[in-house]
Amino acid sequence: MSKLFDAIEEGNFRKIKRILKGGVDPNFPEHNTALHLASKFSNNYKLFKLLLSYGANANSQNLDTPLHYLCTFQPNRIDLIRLFLKFGGCVNARNMNTPLHYVCMSKTTLEVVKFLVSSGALVNAQNKFTIFIVNRKNIHLFHLCVYNSSKKEIIRYLISQGARIDARNGKTPSHFAFDENIKDLLKFYNSIQEDFKKLFKRSELCDLVLKIENKQIQVHSMIFQFRIPEIPYQKIVGILEKKKLEEAMNFLKFVYYGRVKNLEKLKSMIYQDLGLGENYIEKKEGKQGLVSDLKMLYLNEKGQDFKILVGKEIIKTHKLILFARSRLFRGMFLSVKDDSNSVHDYTQKPSKSIQQFFKFLYFDEIPNNIQIRIAKDLLEMADFYQINKKSYLFLQLEEILQNKLI
C-alpha cells in the first residue's frame, strides 16, 4: 500500500495504474485511503477516475471522507466534485462538518456552491464542532460564510435557497460579520423584523391590554391569530397574564418578530403552557418564521380589513401589515377614520405592479424574472409609500435592474 501512496504523491499515473492492476486495494485502511491522499496532493482528473474505477470508495472515512478533503484542498474543482458524486460520493457526508461547510470556509466560487446545493447539499446543515471558530458548536453554513467574509453573491444565493439568516449557535450570523458590507447586507435581509419590532413598541391599532405585574401592555390580537393560529388568542392572553413580566415580554418579542433570547423560558411557554410541538420554535423564529406566517396570512385571506381598488379588481389586505411596513399608510391610518367596508382607489400604476407591491409587503421577496417595467414601478412605489430604506425590496430591485440592464 505504501508503494501506491508514494506513486500518488509523485503523481506517477502509469505506476499507479500498474499497482492497481496488480490487485492492490485502494481502500486499504490506513489513516487515509488512496483517494484521501489524491484529494490532497493531486489535481489529475484521470488519476481520480482511475482510482474510482478500481473501486476506491468515495465515502470512506478516517474522520473525513475524500470529498471533505477535496472541498478543503481543491474547493474550486467542480469537475472533480462532480466525478466523486457520480461514483456515489455523499454530498452531505459528515465528520462533524459537511463538505459544503469546508467550501464555505474557502475562497470558493458561486458556481461550486450552486453545484453542491443543486446536488442536494443542505444549506442549513449544522456541525457539532469546527476548528475555524474556536469553542463554537452547531455552526451553520451561513455562520461560516459571514465569518469568512465570503462573496456577497454566495451569501445571497444561500439565502435564496432557504439558509437561515437568524440561525443560532449562541450567536446569530451577524455577530460573526467583520466585513461592514456584509453587516449592511444582513440588515437588508432582516429589515422586515425591524418593521415588526417597531410595531411591537407602538400602541396604535392595539385592541388588547395585558395586565402583568401591575403593568398594562398593549398588543394586537391579530399578531397572535396569524402567528399562533392553533391556539385561541384569548387563551394565550390568559396564560401571559399569569407570567412574570420578563417571561411574558420574552414571549411577545418572539411572536411579534421572531426573536429568541431566553430559550428555556420560551420552551416552557410553547411546549408546556400551550402544548405545541417540539419543533414549533424553530418553525417560527427569525425572519423565515415571520415571513412564512405572513405568506399564509396573505394566501388564506383571513381577517382582511382593507380594500384596494386596482382597475376593476379589488385587492383585500390587512391594515396592520400595511401599518407596520409603510410610513405613508401608518400616517394615513392615524389621521383618517376608516372602516372595513371602505374601498380605496389606487390607479397611479398598472394593476400588475400594484399587486406585486402589496404581495411583497407579506412575502418580502419579488420574482427574479420580474419585468423591468414592473421593477421600476416597484421602486417608485416603495419610495412613495415610504418603505424602510433598508428594506430587502431595494436590494432585490437594485440587483435585478443591474442584471437586466447589463
Automatic annotation (TrEMBL):
<protein>
    <submittedName>
        <fullName>Ada2a-containing complex component 3 isoform d</fullName>
    </submittedName>
</protein>
<dbReference type="InterPro" id="IPR002110">
    <property type="entry name" value="Ankyrin_rpt"/>
</dbReference>
<dbReference type="InterPro" id="IPR000210">
    <property type="entry name" value="BTB/POZ_dom"/>
</dbReference>
<keyword id="KW-0040">ANK repeat</keyword>
<keyword id="KW-0677">Repeat</keyword>
<feature type="repeat" description="ANK">
    <location>
        <begin position="95"/>
        <end position="128"/>
    </location>
</feature>
<dbReference type="Pfam" id="PF00651">
    <property type="entry name" value="BTB"/>
</dbReference>
<feature type="domain" description="BTB">
    <location>
        <begin position="304"/>
        <end position="370"/>
    </location>
</feature>
<feature type="repeat" description="ANK">
    <location>
        <begin position="30"/>
        <end position="63"/>
    </location>
</feature>
<dbReference type="InterPro" id="IPR011333">
    <property type="entry name" value="SKP1/BTB/POZ_sf"/>
</dbReference>
<dbReference type="InterPro" id="IPR051637">
    <property type="entry name" value="Ank_repeat_dom-contain_49"/>
</dbReference>
<dbReference type="Pfam" id="PF12796">
    <property type="entry name" value="Ank_2"/>
</dbReference>
<dbReference type="InterPro" id="IPR036770">
    <property type="entry name" value="Ankyrin_rpt-contain_sf"/>
</dbReference>
